[in-house]
């Protein structure tokens, strides 16, 4: 069973960003599967590393689009990206140091983080980007 399912309620209306968000959802579901199957660090570690890399790459892409379209709330969005990145990196670091296990609480945090960020912050930029030539 998937931890998170993509739906139109998560769509920003910006195709490239929606595809990247789907990739984040896929990675989160792979982590969930790894946890359910009792995978150890050898399996979960690379998935968490991929999540961190994907998050960095996605945020960079998103920020470039917002900058190009002169999105008025870019500065505030950048602050949220930095905060979210720090949170994810902190969780991954704690996991790698053995201070935290891959458990439902961690996955629920990641799911809620992704859902909230997309629905609150990312959906706000969709109409602006669309009006400024980004589909």
Automatic annotation (TrEMBL):
Top-rank lineage group of the source organism: Bacteria
Domain Hemerythrin-like: 12-129
Alphabetical list of InterPro entries matching this protein: Haemerythrin_Fe_BS, Hemerythrin, Hemerythrin-like, Hemerythrin-like_sf, Hemerythrin_metal-bd
Alphabetical list of SUPFAM superfamilies matching this protein: Hemerythrin-like
Keywords: Iron, Metal-binding, Oxygen transport, Transport
Key word Signal present: no
Record keyword Transport present: yes
An example Gene Ontology molecular-function term: oxygen carrier activity
Pfam families xref list: Hemerythrin
Sequence similarity: Belongs to the hemerythrin family.
Family annotation (NCBIfam families): bact_hemeryth, hemeryth_dom
Name assigned to this protein: Bacteriohemerythrin
